[in-house]
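SEQUENCE, STRUCTURE TOKENS:
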Amino acid sequence: MRDHRRAVRSRLILVSVAALLGTALPALPAAATETPAPTPSAGPVTPGTDSTTIPTDQFIVKFKDRAGIQSIDPQKSFNQAANAVGVPVKKVRTTGSGEQVVRTDRKLGGPEAKKLVATLAADPSVQYAEPDAIMRPLALAPNDSLFKYQWNLGAGTGGINVLGAWDVSQGQGSVVAVVDTGILPHSDLDANVLPGYDMISDPAVARDGDGRDPNPRDEGDATSAGQCAAGEAARNSSWHGTHVAGIIAAVAGNGQGIAGVAPKAKIVPVRAIGTCGGYTSDIADGIRWAAGGSVSGAPANANPARVINLSLGGQATCSSTYQNAVDFARSQGAVVVAAAGNDNIDASQISPANCQGVMAVGASTRTNVKAYYSNFGPKVDIYAPGGDMTNNVVDGIVSTLNDGTDTAGAEAYYLKAGTSMAAPHVAGVAALMLSKFPAYTPDEVRATMLVTASTAGGVNLVNAGLALRNTAQDATPLQSQVPVIDGQPTVGNTLSTTAADWVGIERATVAYQWQRDGVAIPDAVSPAYTLAPADVNAAISVTVTATKSHFPAVSATSAATSPVQAGTLTRATPVISGSAYVGNMLSVDAGTWGPAPVSLAYQWSRGGVPIDGATAAQYTLTEADTGATVTATVTATKDGYQPTSVTSDATAEVVTADKAVAPEPVTFTDAPYMADDKYTIPASANFDYQVDGTTTPAGTYPARGQVKVVAKVHSGFALLTGAQATWTAYFSTKGPAFTAPAQSPFTDVTTTQPFYTEMAWLADRKISTGWVEADKSVTYRPSASITRDAMAAFLYRMAGSPDYTPPAVSPFTDVATTQPFYKEMSWLAQTGISSGWIESNGSHTYRPLTSISRDAMAAFLYRLANKPDFVPPATSPFFDVSPGQLFYKEMTWLADQRISTGWQETPTTKSYRALSPINRDAMAAFLYRMP
């Protein structure tokens, strides 16, 4: 017979722990003297006058009624307010009473918020404007003396956030049955205990001298050694049911003891566990009776439970007896919660937690991880605090108990740990949810609890606050508003609507149907609809339908728009290519028009007069065009859109074919060293040659980096088709190949150290001669940072020390004409490599003794190369350099040319360290790698 009994799941772990705490608990007095605090409030409060106003990014605007106008566009008012405070303002929704809710792109504090409100309120079309003030809930911790030890109920790590839940419900009206060892009187629990039943049928197990009876008092489950099984140790009475009941519904705010998860719920105690455990048949009858079912010999339960807690179990498959009892309870709308077990095994082996429809609960710890003892696996639906007192007893779960070791003694509070403690947390949250929304089914309770569970610690921990937030949303009946259509009724524009301001919409399913003159438009079933050509002259409306479990569906249809107008095509300015001389073919590029596809037509004109038959994208100039200018007009058409025409710029005056000429070529001489690099512009009677947009006379000029020359034909002539008119060359700055010497030119640079070749190259090219020390040795000082005056000398020599006479007056107020490197620094200014800083008084400074940073170095080298054509990438190659920062183009050019690859911080990321000073050895590497 003993094999058919099911022991309390937490007993083997918990009874010994509780006995230990019985002597330790004076540190947790049953009643502590404290100054009474206010009872918890479940209502939101506005910050008082002594509080700092919480910044907000939303504002409420009520526009004045405008009779006879169907709809208005308030964006003009919003734009005026945006300009006043310097932040964008956009509409997000309409309230139930017709106000517009607008949002700024950041939260505004007191002065800015007042300025925005004042600007809106000053608008003649605005009735009033005010901040959409942020409210915060005031759910105070209760004044129960041991609440500070109830980490399991808090919002911190490991807690289930009951204060957040109590803003919605504290469990009033909910009934939870605790099928367990029964219950004992306790002043922190009695107010929430309803009549229960003793379902133990065997007097020997019951210890009360009879079988089943209406008294669920816990008579104790103490045993002597070997009483239940050979070799089994003696155990004191656990008073397990009292502990479980306290976790669920201990009274809160009474200045003593603890608070339950659902402190205003009621407990129906069902005694089914006694000496050596309890029979499945008694437990199953207890489940059935608790849910309002009929049990032979027992009176009907006057308070059927919507939640049944089973902190008990044993290793077995789910029996038919258990499954039938669970199925009945669920059919009556009851949520059945069971402990997953304390054997650190798969919970599928534990009954009744493994029965279908049962919410199986695992135990978590104060650090929000699975407790070492807790069972696990797919069968565990959710976790809740069960505690772990291995290292600290206060990491257990404190609740109501009794000091008696065999029979009942004085009431007390004890700490326990186990999945028996975890399950009542979930039962308590279920009671809170059903208090708020009694229409919830057991499956909906489970689904809401799972979707709101916290997963930060690796287990899906029940979150009472979030579960009650969703429950409150589900419990709110749907109330529709007349939808408002946003957008202008023009083909190609997108109209939109929203049901976000409907009451109770948060967890509803919303459907949309757009109509054209009252007839549903096929497939137009999203919140937005893009107007099509078929909508021209029609009125558009939208019907919004919301559905939600337990409530009837609601629908509302918007007012119709004004008749849809033809759309406006996006257009481009046509561009004519080709030279303007008789016999030459011109082409026009229409550019991109939209929305595609668009039909394009062409008309060429001579002196503004259309040319007969010239209606293609190409046109060959004739004698009739001589002396005139030619334009091309592109006309775009598309069904549902207004035809649009755009005319190109006019060509030069058309010349005769004999005036079509080709320029003489520019020649380039790329010598081994930069000092000898040159380019030559030929003499020409028909062309001007431009370098960097400046007309340059014929002659030979020194070249540096990229050189681009463009030939511009003189008036009265035309560029011959196919003739080259642009020449681009890139002159190497590095010179011929270099082999580093076997002996270093500098005594402080070894041949094996990083950048030796580069530093030796500087010496060979006379770019840097280093320092001659007192002992006549030459040093380079590779680890010293390079100053801006020395940098000027490096770059001047890198360019081949070009012929240059510095000005008599320094271009920089902080650089004297007599100081070292004056010539080189003024050369930098003359070439545009460095313009220095413009100070507040308008003067230019160079700051010659300042170390040069890596971003400025990039700019110097890019300009030394004559600003070569380069488009910087949209995504930076360096994680510490953003596309919008100063010298981004120049730094990414260095990376593109492999002049600087930065630092490899991780296998996939590099840094550039833009503001770090550059050392002389790295400087040598940069110059050596120049293309």
Notes: The longest helix spans residues 419-436.
